[in-house]
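Feature request, filed as a ticket because there's no other form

It would be nice if the structure record came with a short human-readable summary line next to the tokens. Right now we just get the raw output. Example of a typical job, pasted below so the devs can see what we mean:
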Amino acid sequence: MKFVHFTDTHLGKNEAKLEEREKDFYRAFRQAIDFSIEKKVDFVIHTGDIFDRARPAVRTLVFTVEQLSRLKKAGIPCYTIVGSHDIGVEDTIVSVLESVGLLVNLNSARYYKSENGKIKVGGEFAGDCFLCGIAGKRARIKEIYESLEVDLKGKFNIFMFHHIVSDISEKFADIPSSVLPQGFDYYAAGHWHSFAEFRQGSGVIVYPGSTEYNDLFEMEKDTDKYFIYAETEPFKYEKIKINTRDIVSKNFNCTGLDAKDVASKVISGIQHTDKNPVLIVKLNGKLGKGTKSEIDRNLINKDAGTKGYLYTKTYLGSLENPETPFVSSKSKTPAEIEKEYLSRQDYSEKSIDIAQRLISLLGKNIDSGQTLASKDEAINFLKVNMFETEET
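Raw output as currently delivered:
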């Protein structure tokens, strides 16, 4: 038998609040459906986080119904478990899709029975394959796994789950792999967004990874996205690469530069493109003058947009400011120390005057009798009094 395994599709995610990024998640999902129909697989499995939110938007639901209807029309059943993003306060929207016959939710109550302190897990057959699984909840999860009892009923047995095993990361692990029920041929895993595989007894644990990049951190890792195409006799599987939006990452050494010149250097290093990729700009080195806050990231973003990039993220984390100038406090008032320090940072006289007025206002009573207890309140007060400042 042949099947497709995909997971963590996060339909409806609107990363960077851009419509085009939301559509990227739809395109990735559609590729898995197209492939399944083209290969005439016997069934499809999805291991959680179909949606990015427990209550997806109507347009997201419409898209999902359309795609699952294509599978149903082709005679390909879809089996799923709910992930952490699919679970709402009352229930899961996945139950609605099951109620109209578009998929089988293996986490429905009918598949579980509590008996003598154990949780007996039932499932479904797809031909001679037996499928069962557990939802992506987190509370007392190790205890729940240790209570599971499953009868292996198929010629080929598949266990579906949505948790991170310790083989991947001790830091982020939900469970040790040792608590997984034993004897399955294929452990279809979800929740980890990169591809991973591990032996589990005579079987294999497979994380296909998310079908689309969920954030800039995933983009920076620069790894491809996949779903799995498998055959049971003899058992073999392959990773099918998903065509995703291009990610362009550029590094710029800014050592010795004036902060005000950084944007120009970056702009000169950005080439035109017709592929509408996401651009990641990483700045490193030590500035010769100015501070990171003076770098005009808006100018970089605007230029990249005119050159064909969907959007740009500029990272300043690896960039260092110049050494902080030493200011002697001997025989000086606090106001004199503040002024000398700010002067050495190349702030203008007007900026220094505003800064010192701001500092002097903190914690003091204003004419209205109100105390400026926070920086935000002081800033708002200064905005009201800016005209007086500019005249001086």
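Something like this underneath would help us a lot:
The radius of gyration is 28 Å.
The CA atoms of residues 33 and 70 lie 8 Å apart.
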